[in-house]
Specification:
The complex is a heterodimer. By secondary structure, chain A is mostly helical. Helices cover about 75% and strands about 0% of the residues of chain A. Chain B is of the alpha/beta class. Chain B has a single domain, classed as Rossmann fold (3-Layer(aba) Sandwich), CATH 3.40.50. Chain B has 11 helices and 10 strands. In chain B, strand 4 and strand 5 form a beta hairpin. The longest helix of chain B is centred in the middle third of the chain and has 14 residues. The model of chain B has no long low-confidence stretch (mean pLDDT about 90). Classes of the chains: A mainly alpha, B alpha/beta. At the A-B interface, helix 1, helix 8 and helix 9 of A face helix 3, helix 4 and helix 7 of B. The structure holds adenosine-5'-triphosphate (ATP) and magnesium ion (MG).
Chain lengths: ~325, ~260
């Protein structure tokens, strides 16, 4: 092919420059050996820290497991709360947590992802955006009690929601919103510019490009961040305590304006009272097992959803 | 009507682009200086010049993709079908539908081959399955890729070779029936055989499309283009029939560049 001979000519002409270096790199054998040893040692150091973390976890799970044996039964899961340990059941508590989750997931996902899209795709990149970004990152590390106070002022008092599920759910949403915004921003930022370019160059509008190209690619990342932070919300106690969630609730909540109690809060109250009633420790342990199982189920579900999306794109 | 006026009108209606005194700045740095040139329909126009001379900037201005860089300022006129593309009445989405673009690095979406080709038609509202399939087939045939992929249309596009991916991108651009296809160094990431295939394809596409191609390879410009524009540091040094540019250029700098004496 005439064409290929031309190509070869073109390439040859480039090799007319010769590269002459003025220095020489000597390899220090001893140093290399030392570094290989260090590299091998670091492997053991890191695996040791894993062993440490794991053993703490195992001890914790063992204690909880032992304490909850005999207490975690059908009646406990389906019964009502009671001041008598042997009669107490946590059905209303579980329902409280379920309702909270049902508020936190849509509120944080919709608000969080929209905010992230706005900041990454629409906001003009300037000083103001930098300030907003820094503030959101800072909010992510504000202690949860503070969010409890915010919720108390805004939702409970100003909006008159009291200590209802809605007030609790919105407070927890505020708590995790910054984390979801930041992690969604990272996921959106990671979408390669050349994909957006390809879409825009086809005459797609910005919004179409976001919907059809940016979000599908970013969704696994967005979900990873959201799973972690929503799980955190489900396990939070402090903000709910600040809202003044009642210690003992006999009725199961039926709508978001009802009063409620949630799993972490119940664990907290029972633990507080173990001095007077030692069996409360067993109840707390059994509730912890339930909470862990709930979190485990939620995370697994989210991971499955995430993998589904990942496969598609 | 006198003969010359008629010729002039015919020439006018044969123009895809009429660029008039185009200036462009990135912030304070001027990247294009007073560029005027005319691009004729159904021809291949090559843009050559050393790295950093403004080839990509120029070609991205033709479909206003350059506006995605916020610091860019432009001045001058680009008439496309006798209308200024910078005019307020022009919708940039419509312009980009008429003026397709193929990039230096193949950039298919992380979707199936089929979904890639029908992306454009779908966003323009075509929903009918059989129609979409027909568009996919026509475009892939047009991009000389159909035979290689017809049995695996639902496979992910990332499973294709670089050259196939680039032809897929050409098919994707063709699927919305543009009048013009802009190509920014479409073969620079490809091996000689894949390059050869794309060049052959460009030669075919010429019948139905107007093509503007940026290239680093002088041989490529000489092989495939009808007209060649030589840019140097943001200025249009020479714009003429390709044979003229490569055999008998007017400007000394053009001669130096095409004979490989610099750049
Ligand atoms: N986003 C940008 N911001 C600022 N300056 C830019 C930007 N893009 C390009 N430039 C500048 O504009 C000039 C022209 O760049 P351009 O990318 O158009 O060159 P090119 O001819 O396509 O080069 P190459 O052959 O290497 O692709 C260069 O000096 C470059 O540094
Ligand atoms: Mg370029």
């Amino acid at each position: 092919m005439n064409y290929e001979s031309q190509f070869i000519k073109e390439n040859k002409s480039e090799s007319k420059y010769e590269y002459v270096s003025t220095y020489k790199i000597e390899i220090d054998q001893k140093r290399t050996t030392r570094r290989i040893k260090l590299s091998n040692a670091s492997r053991y150091i890191f695996s040791l820290s894993l062993v440490f973390a794991l053993s703490v976890l195992v001890i914790l799970l063992y204690r909880i497991g032992v304490d909850s044996i005999g207490w975690l039964n059908f009646n406990f899961l389906t019964g009502r709360l009671s001041i008598f340990p042997e009669k107490a059941g946590i059905f209303s508590v579980i329902m409280g947590s379920v309702f909270l989750t049902l508020i936190v997931i849509p509120v944080t996902l919709i608000l969080g992802v929209s905010t992230a899209i706005y900041l990454e795709e629409y906001a003009s990149s300037g000083k103001i955006r930098r300030i907003i970004n820094t503030n959101i990152s800072n909010l992510a590390s504000v202690p949860s009690v503070i969010f409890g106070l915010l919720g108390l002022t805004v939702f409970s008092r100003m909006l008159n929601l009291g200590s209802s599920i809605l007030a609790g759910g919105l407070t927890l949403s505020l708590l995790v919103l910054p984390i979801i915004v930041v992690s969604s921003q990272e996921a959106i930022k990671a979408v390669p510019g050349f994909l957006k370019e390809a879409s825009l160059a086809m005459g797609a509008t910005k919004w179409t490009t976001i919907r059809k190209v940016v979000l599908p690619v970013a969704i696994p990342g967005i979900l990873t961040g959201s799973i972690l932070s929503i799980s955190r919300a489900i396990g939070e106690t402090a903000p709910l305590v600040v809202l003044g969630i009642p210690t003992l609730i006999m009725t199961t909540p039926t709508n978001i304006f009802d009063d409620f109690t949630a799993l972490p809060i119940q664990i907290y109250y029972w633990t507080l009272d173990t001095v007077l009633t030692p069996e409360y420790a067993n109840l707390a342990a059994a509730t912890i097992v339930v909470l862990l199982v709930v979190l485990f189920i939620m995370n697994s579900a989210a991971i499955i959803i995430r993998n589904k999306f990942q496969k598609k794109f | 009507m006198s003969e010359s006026v008629r010729d002039f009108n015919e020439y006018k209606s044969n123009l895809a682009y009429d660029v008039k005194n185009l200036n462009l700045w990135y912030g304070k740095d001027q990247a294009l200086k007073d560029i005027s040139l005319q691009i004729e329909k159904n021809q291949v126009t090559a843009i050559i010049g050393p790295s950093g001379c403004g080839k990509s900037t120029f070609i991205k201005t033709l479909n206003r993709m350059i506006e995605n860089i916020p610091i860019v300022k432009t001045q001058g006129e680009i008439l496309y079908n006798n209308k200024d593309i910078f005019d307020k009445s022009i919708k940039v989405e419509e312009l980009r539908t008429k003026v397709g673009m193929v990039f230096q690095k193949p950039n298919p979406f992380p979707k199936s081959i089929y979904e890639n080709v029908v992306y454009g038609p779908k966003i323009h509202g075509i929903k009918d399955k059989s129609m979409l399939m027909e568009i996919a087939e026509t475009s892939l045939k047009g991009a000389a890729l159909w035979e290689e992929v017809k049995d695996r249309l639902n496979d992910n596009a990332y499973g294709l070779s670089g050259g196939q991916q680039q032809r897929l991108c050409i098919a994707r651009a063709m699927a919305v029936q543009p009048e013009i296809i802009l190509m920014d160094e479409p073969t620079s990431a490809l091996d000689p055989i894949a390059t050869y295939k794309i060049e052959e394809l460009i030669d075919q596409l010429k019948k139905n499309y107007t093509i503007v191609i940026v290239t680093h390879s002088m041989q490529q410009a000489a092989r495939i283009s009808d007209k060649t524009a030589f840019l140097l540091m943001g200025e249009l040094i020479e714009f003429d029939k390709t044979e003229k540019i490569f055999s008998n250029p007017r400007d000394k700098r053009t001669e130096d560049y095409v004979t490989g004496r610099f750049g």
